[in-house]
Specification:
alpha+beta; five-stranded mixed beta sheet; 12 helices
């Protein structure tokens, strides 16, 4: 039976793990075939801190997605986040041996390979090398150099760097769950693919993805990624504050935040009170909604101010770098009442809530087009772009009867001197939709990364 082009994204978050199976329909929109969601137990602030629990959560999400869709998952594209992520701007060039020939994908690949050899801090490795603009023989502001003549090819790059051990732990969890890792994508980039329009990326926009453990930022201008950052605070910190401030358990604090929480204290009247049942027959607790909003407000202001510091670091106040489309909020934290108004008040920038329905087929459920699933939708889109055959159709009863995947126990890996760097590379950003030469770069780029991570995992014995 002929394989369909089915793509799978796996969002390993701090509060939830989502496995999403999708394919492109005849109109080029993304059709979601199945979603699996499980509580994330072994992840803190976007980083795996308990391998066994993370494996179990991944298996649970994968099994649920398989049961819902009737497809068996082979491999996944995974989002990477966490406070260890940082980005740098870098400029590099190559002198071409034959300037009489037109510039091809191979020349750009040479330049990207050169950037991948940059010396990083100990324990760090490059996740993405994203070309921004090219210069040919001093002529600047070239977005698409393929097909042009020139001797010196120069480019500015946005290089995303992360902690090698964190990346390997994610790879280990996925392989031990019985599935393959087909690619890594920075989570703010995946979210941006899902919720931003091309017009916004051209005009200049900051995407703020407020997750459970981290808040991710991606800034675009002139259609090019300009800045990325991960702030190590998210919705969980707000829940902790409510728990401490109101002396209640975490489950109650989370429910209070979601049902009655607001980021703007002025909204609540002094006499609005919620009664919380006491533990084991104790008296119920009465909590003022105004106090609740004050607790939430204080923490949200802190998170937004940290993100705004990053936006200023990009140079937002420079007229040429102005973000005309303002801010787009997504992720679970963006569903907090009045957060849009608070962000506008703090930053002075136009703000909207980003839903991942821009690229979804019309029949997608309301739940999937929620900001909660923005990253997962972006990862599926990323997987489709890589022409993945990540899942195949099976009889539904076969899936239901199936026992959970075994946990593969692997010995601890001691790296050899020459194996201390697995270079994780990512596809060159799309400049022209149908440029076959560029698509070849993406494939070779992508294949090389997958081979390296597989070699690493296979040799970890």
């Amino acid at each position: 039976m002929e394989k369909e082009n089915i793509a799978v994204g796996l969002d390993i978050g701090t509060t939830k793990i989502v496995a999403m199976i999708g394919k492109k329909n005849e109109y080029g929109k993304l059709e979601i075939l199945g979603v699996g969601k499980s509580k994330s137990l072994g992840v803190a602030r976007g980083v795996v801190n308990n391998i066994t629990q993370t494996i179990q959560s991944i298996q649970q999400a994968v099994l649920e997605a398989e049961n819902n869709s009737g497809y068996k998952i082979n491999d996944v594209v995974v989002g990477i986040a966490g406070q260890h992520i940082r980005s740098i701007q870098h400029t590099d060039y190559v002198i071409r041996t034959n300037p009489e020939e037109v510039i091809s994908g191979r020349d750009i690949q040479l330049l990207i390979d050169q950037v991948n050899k940059l010396a990083m801090l100990p324990g760090e490795e490059i996740i993405h090398v994203l070309p921004q603009e090219f210069k040919i023989d001093g002529q600047s502001e070239i977005k698409e150099p393929i097909g042009m003549y020139g001797g010196r090819l120069e480019a500015s790059f946005h290089v995303v760097v992360g902690q090698a051990s964190s990346i390997r732990n994610v790879g280990r969890c996925i392989q031990s769950s019985g599935i393959e890792l087909s690619g890594l994508t920075l989570e703010p980039l995946a979210s941006a693919d899902a919720v931003l329009s091309q017009e916004e990326k051209e005009a200049g926009v900051a995407l703020i993805d407020i997750g459970g453990g981290t808040t991710d930022l991606a800034i675009f201008k002139d259609g090019i990624i300009r800045h990325t950052a991960v702030v190590p605070f998210g919705g969980n910190v707000i829940t902790d504050d409510i728990k401490e401030g109101c002396s209640i358990i975490e489950k109650q604090a989370e429910l209070l935040k979601v049902k009655f929480g607001s980021a703007w204290p002025g909204e609540n009247k002094d006499n609005e009170i919620v009664s919380i049942p006491g533990l084991r027959g104790r008296d119920p607790k009465e909590i003022s909604l105004k106090n609740l909003s004050k607790i939430i407000h204080a923490r949200v202001v802190e998170i937004i101010e940290q993100v705004f510091t990053e936006i200023k670091a990009y140079g937002h106040e420079d007229p040429r770098k102005k973000l005309i489309a303002g801010i787009v909020l997504t992720g679970g934290g963006s569903q907090l009442k009045h957060i849009k108004q608070l962000v506008e008040y703090i930053t002075g920038m136009d703000t909207r809530i980003g839903y991942p329905n821009e690229h979804l087929a019309g029949n997608s459920g309301e739940e999937i087009s929620s900001p909660l699933f923005a990253t997962a939708v972006g990862l599926v889109m990323n997987s489709i772009e890589n022409n993945s055959n990540s899942a195949y159709k099976i009889e539904l009863k076969e899936v239901v009867a199936e026992t959970p995947r075994p946990i593969v126990q692997q010995p601890v890996f001691e790296p050899k001197a020459e194996e201390n760097s697995v270079v994780v590379t990512q596809e060159v950003e799309k400049a022209t939709e149908n440029d076959t030469a560029e698509k070849q770069i993406k494939r070779s780029f992508f294949d090389r990364y997958v081979d390296k991570i597989k070699d690493f995992l296979d040799n970890a014995e």
